[in-house]
């Protein structure tokens, strides 16, 4: 089986600061891959490199065999890479429905229709509402995102990414900032994502990681320390030393 | 799906597809425009200038109020449109008014496209300074090109054929008033259609969170250039109308004070609401007219004071305050 997303020898440095060191990683269709590591390990940087928010200093990124290293963010989204943000990046003044409709309109190309009436773009609303249904957000569809509790906002964050119908979804700590009593709602949503979607998740909660992931990559100091299935990672003495043994990571 | 979820879905869908439905209150500005003609037939020269300001402010609302592009140089396009329409008549001997406006809109649209391709690569303060610089450069250039623009003395010799070959221009500016209203209406319809379209929604998205728009695959730069071009064309049509109705163009049409005034007008009325342009233009120009009558020197102080008060007490302009009031007394829901 060929890899859907292939990261090959990726490097990133800001001046003398090396934040990504020769990272290799590949995701297959339907992958459930977790990226763990202590704070400052370069996990979010890796997502920024894959989505094109940052340009790598060296290395290649391929999607379904195509080299996308030089493409801009919008081009990569079009080819099927979507992400969520560790800290919400939402359209706070817009309704929940509009937040998701924006993504749908962009994916379907109707965002270029200057003179199309909302009536004739009803399919955009219908599709957006389908995503709201899936994340149980329909009741809040017309509420400005600003007025939602943070936990519900996290669901909107995911809904926007899903509305792009990605082949590869990068989740940056989807439950971050959500009280632990509510985090299960978000993790349930993550667990019920389409089976053929390749998912890379950054997560600090080890219970979640070991429940969700079929493969785990441990990143330390910008480099891959070790990669493998969950039980191998859990048993790895190196990992225990540098990461799991270190105590709590919130 | 449960019944209540189904109902919520239906309600949300209805709201989304019906967002461009006409509200009865939207007839008010047009009724007021006709009413003003009936009640103040002697003030139609001022009325025409107000309508022109509305067109100009509307063009600014598209980029500032919706897409969030802050500019201190929008007079560049208004002024270019005035000169384009003026020179078409004064130098090229084409005096038909409607094609003259279309010409002005076309020229400024091209200018907006060309300048937008450079300007919109920048953000924040840099962008503000660059928009200012473009307008100043254009004004200086017009000053130097005396042979074409009349330079400091202004562009004379603009004559306009009767509208449709039928309606002569009268001393009281009645024809121009109706003519400018007839230009405002399609401009408004286009703006209204744009802001309610998926394209318009994406502009608001860029204003609200540019970073996320990149992450949903929006070609942000291209979209900003598109709306900037449309806005420039609309400002140019307003400028063309200004040149035709005054039969005279001076460098003032490109001035910083005109860029500033239109910004004040829009902020006073309320940005990102279309009708803010209407309310702001009427309020500002009437205030200016009345204050100038009281004190021809100090009137700008009065305008400044009004703006300070408006910003302090009417966040989001007059229209924003009216919306909050209406919500408070329960006329409209959020």
In short:
Chain A is α/β, with parallel strands linked by helices and 250 residues long.
Give an account of the 3D structure:
- The complex is a heterodimer of chains A (250) and B (334).
- In chain A, the strands form two sheets. Chain A has a six-stranded mixed sheet with strand order 6-7-8-3-9-10, sandwiched between helices. A four-stranded antiparallel sheet of chain A has the order 2-1-4-5, covered by helices on one side.
- Chain A has 250 residues and is α/β, with parallel strands linked by helices.
- Chain A has helices at 43-51, 73-79, 96-108, 122-134, 150-162, 183-191, 206-212, 230-235, 237-242; strands spanning 5-14, 17-27, 32-36, 58-63, 66-67, 81-83, 168-172, 198-202, 215-220, 223-228.
- In chain B, α9 packs across α11 (220-246), α12 (256-269) packs across α13 (275-294) and α12 runs parallel beside α15.
- The radius of gyration of chain B is 21 Å and the shape is globular.
- Chain B has 15 helices and no strands.
- Chain B has helices at residues 3-17, 28-39, 44-66, 75-90, 97-119, 124-144, 146-149, 174-196, 198-208, 210-215, 220-246, 256-269, 275-294, 299-313, 317-328.
- The model of chain B has no long low-confidence stretch (mean pLDDT 90).
- Chain B has a single domain (41-299), classed as ABC transporter involved in vitamin B12 uptake, BtuC, CATH 1.10.3470.
- The interface between A and B is large, with 52 and 42 residues.
CATH architecture type of the largest domain in chain A: 3-Layer(aba) Sandwich
Number of helices of chain A: 9
Strand order of the largest sheet of chain A: 6-7-8-3-9-10
Coarse shape of chain B: globular
Give the biggest beta sheet of chain A. Answer: 6 strands, mixed
Cα-to-Cα separation, first versus last residue of chain B: 27 Å
CATH topology term of chain B: ABC transporter involved in vitamin B12 uptake, BtuC
Helix content of chain B: over 70%
Largest sheet report of chain B: none
Total domain modules of chain B: 1
The global form of chain A is globular
């Amino acid at each position: 089986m060929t890899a859907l997303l292939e990261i090959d020898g990726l490097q990133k440095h800001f001046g003398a600061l090396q934040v990504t060191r020769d990272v290799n990683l590949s995701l297959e269709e339907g992958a459930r891959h977790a990226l763990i590591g202590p704070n400052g390990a370069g996990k979010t940087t890796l997502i920024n490199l894959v989505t094109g928010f940052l340009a790598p200093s060296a290395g290649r990124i391929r999607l379904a065999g195509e080299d996308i290293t030089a493409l801009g963010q919008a081009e990569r989204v079009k080819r099927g890479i979507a992400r969520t943000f560790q800290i919400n990046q939402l359209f706070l003044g817009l309704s929940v429905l509009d937040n998701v409709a924006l993504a749908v309109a962009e994916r379907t190309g109707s965002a270029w229709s200057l003179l199309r009436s909302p009536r004739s773009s009803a399919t955009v609303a219908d599709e957006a509402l389908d995503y709201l249904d899936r994340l149980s957000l329909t009741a809040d569809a017309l509420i400005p995102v600003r007025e939602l509790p943070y936990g519900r906002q996290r669901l909107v964050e995911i809904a926007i990414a899903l509305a792009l119908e990605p082949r590869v979804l990068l989740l940056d700590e989807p439950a971050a900032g959500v009280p632990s009593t509510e985090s299960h709602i978000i993790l349930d949503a993550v667990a019920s994502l389409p089976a053929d979607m390749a998912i890379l998740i950054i997560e600090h909660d080890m219970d979640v990681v070991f429940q969700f992931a079929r493969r785990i990559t441990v990143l330390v100091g910008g480099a891959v320390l070790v990669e493998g299935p969950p039980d191998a990672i859990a048993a790895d003495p190196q990992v225990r030393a540098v990461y799991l043994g270190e105590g709590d990571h919130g | 799906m449960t019944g209540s979820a189904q109902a919520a879905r239906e309600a949300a869908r209805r709201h989304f597809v019906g967002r461009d439905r006409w509200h009865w209150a939207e007839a008010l500005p047009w009724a007021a425009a006709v009413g003003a003609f009936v009640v103040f037939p002697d003030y139609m020269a001022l009325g025409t200038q107000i309508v022109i300001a509305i067109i100009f402010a509307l063009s600014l609302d598209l980029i500032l109020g919706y897409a969030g592009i802050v500019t201190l140089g929008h007079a560049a396009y208004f002024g270019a449109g005035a000169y384009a329409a003026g020179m078409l008549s004064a130098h090229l001997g084409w005096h038909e008014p409607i094609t003259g406006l279309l010409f002005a809109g076309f020229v400024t649209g091209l200018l907006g496209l060309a300048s937008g391709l450079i300007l919109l690569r920048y953000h924040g303060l840099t962008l503000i300074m660059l928009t200012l610089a473009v307008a100043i450069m254009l004004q200086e250039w017009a000053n130097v090109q005396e042979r074409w623009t009349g330079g400091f003395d202004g562009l004379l010799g603009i004559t306009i054929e009767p509208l449709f070959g039928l309606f002569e221009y009268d001393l009281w500016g009645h024809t121009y008033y109706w003519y400018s209203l007839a230009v405002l209406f399609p401009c408004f319809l286009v703006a209204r259609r744009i802001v309610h379209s998926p394209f318009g929604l994406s502009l608001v998205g860029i204003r609200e969170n540019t970073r996320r728009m990149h992450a949903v695959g929006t070609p942000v730069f291209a979209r900003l250039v598109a709306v900037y071009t449309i806005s420039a064309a609309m400002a140019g049509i307003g400028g063309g109308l200004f040149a035709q109705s005054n039969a005279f163009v001076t460098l003032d049409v490109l001035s910083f004070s005109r860029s500033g005034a239109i910004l004040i007008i829009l902020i006073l009325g309320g940005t990102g609401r279309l009708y803010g342009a209407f309310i702001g233009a009427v309020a500002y120009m009437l205030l200016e007219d009345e204050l100038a009558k009281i004190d021809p020197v100090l009137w700008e102080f009065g305008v400044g004071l009004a703006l300070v008060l408006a910003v302090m007490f009417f966040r989001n302009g007059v229209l924003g305050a009216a919306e909050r009031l209406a919500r408070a007394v329960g006329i409209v829901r959020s």
